[in-house]
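Input sequence (689 aa), recorded before submission:
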Amino acid sequence: DNNFPLTYISYLPCQIELAKACIESNDRKRASDIIDILSKMDMRGHPKELVFEIRKLKMQIGDEATGTTWKTAAQVKKTPAKYKFYFQPLGDANLKALEEASMIVSSFFGARAVILPALPMPQDPDCFRKTNGMYDAPALIERLAVSTELPSDAISMVYVTGENVFLGGVGRVGNYYCSEYGASILAYDCYTYFNRNLPDIIVKETIGLLVSGYSCCTKTSCASTAFYTNDTSAIQLAMCEECQKNYGKLDFDEVHDKLYNKYISLARKNVKRKTDSNMEVQKWIDEYKAKVQAALKKSEADAKGKSGINPEYLPAVEVSNPAPGLSYSYYEFEKNRLRAASRLQYLLPQKTGTIPGFSLESIEQKEYFGIIFSGYVRIPSDDIYTFYLSSYGGILYVDDRETINNDHKGSIVKRTASVALKAGLHPIRLDSVRGKRNDLCNLYWQSSKITAQGIPPELLYQNKEWIDEHVNLAKKAKKEPEPVLMPDKGYRITIAKESDPDAKGRIVLGKDNWKGEKDCSVEALIGMDDRGITVTIDVEDDHLIGDSDVSHENDSVEVYLDLRPSGKRNYNYGRGVIQIIAVPYFSEYMPDTLKFYPQEWNYDPKVDGATAKSSPLPGKGYRMQIFIPYDGLKSNNYTPSDTIMFDLGINDHDGYEGEDPFKQLMWHGTSNNFQSPKDFGKIKVQDCR
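Predicted structure, token format:
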């Protein structure tokens, strides 16, 4: 009930489940009451996934329970075309994050957002306090007002810096300082300390400043709420009904007048009081103006240099009778089974079809799913187009080139990329994996003539041929693989067979419950010839698991090699030490793939030309064959001399009721092989020939 003390409802999981139950029983009013109370709580310290869940429920039931329609600022009242939003980076500002934020702001307000050339921070005693190593917020914003020229079409000016900023009597500025008439300083240093998403911070504060002024909305899901109670990465930016009313009353001309005239006038008055009492302040101002002019000249020279380089405009393609809409293929999977959008194109989809645009409204979705949109986009005119992708896991292809890769990140990631395109039709494709059904995937674009927005459906056309081609390839991949032959010669090893005298000791994970030969056992042959190293492994296993897009989460084979000469071997990974995971044919998401794992940040162990192939055994199990060519080893590794250090691991995911399903057999070392090669076994090269 509304009169409950908030401390009584602080256990969020129960309240969230109760709200869901109310929705299922059609008691949406009570569900709305529960979520409204939770929305008033300070969400700092609570797990992010629970905060996201509250916002999603708020967005879901707000429309039906209270009649609220959540809208962007542009949907409520479009910003007049004569006004723009400006961002002024100061010092060593994060320009990439600013680019992403400016596109979101542009789309939300329906107006152009401009990033000005970066300016230095003033270092004189009036603005910078050496005693605390911070910049004085009011002094800094006044200095910028009298030292720089505010654009005449500005309706918002946000100075963005990563430096420490403080407000006298209040202390460190935790997010922004807003001047009396609108210009603001956004200091994000404390957010980066807590590893927050910088574009989100910039967007939230810009929206909050214009829509709500000094005070922020208290509704958790509202775009103009304080940032620490919200995070735009999980929901589409939108305003609650109250903020919509406030924004609808906004007089843009009045806002512009306050910023362009009153802000400048007030700043000059304050600065004049300082210069009258301290003549050195004027000297500091003049010195800073000189630095600003130098920075602007350098920026202008750099821009001219770049403008002299003609971008390579990608040509349009000819498509006969293009049909409107987009083609799509839809995939379903269990939780955490598929995290890489790059794997979708190799799978058989649950369904295919056409859809008007980059939207899921007409597709019934499972909780965890993936989708590929394939089609063409009609480019209105020759220009440089900037694309923005915010997704849980997604890859954008423009003109059959990978343009933005947010793949396999495990959380919402935002990135931008620019492409020079000729007018006409260009292939476009978006592969997207959703961790949960409500995880959004937002795609925007903009150019010199288009403000940031979603790609209009009327500019999109189907590419059914691409979908059909990849469905056919996926069907072929499902066929029984060709048999892999076991070589006649090589060094033979066994694991967990009756002939292995130390079988139990080789089972390094889950050994207490291992059933030995009846469950899983291994026989392998390590061969070497003039071409390279061939490792062939027979795995007898009565239950094969291949339902993950993470290599070691499938039944799979791990091969460890230390090819360094004996005099250079030690207990550390480095050049010449390789860990490979090979995934067999029955894997749903990555059949017959090799994964090289780098254990050193500055060393890539990948071997060009290395291959993996597998086939079923006559009984139960599989045969895996890995080939590592000497030609590939020579470029970044050593080739075998007299001896090699070797180990073989078998990942088995049978599991038993109530136990961790992952178990591993090792030939010589331990489950810590990935940390150190000290327990690899020694094999003579002559025994492998």
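Checked by second reader. Residues 275 and 281 are 5 Å apart (CA to CA).
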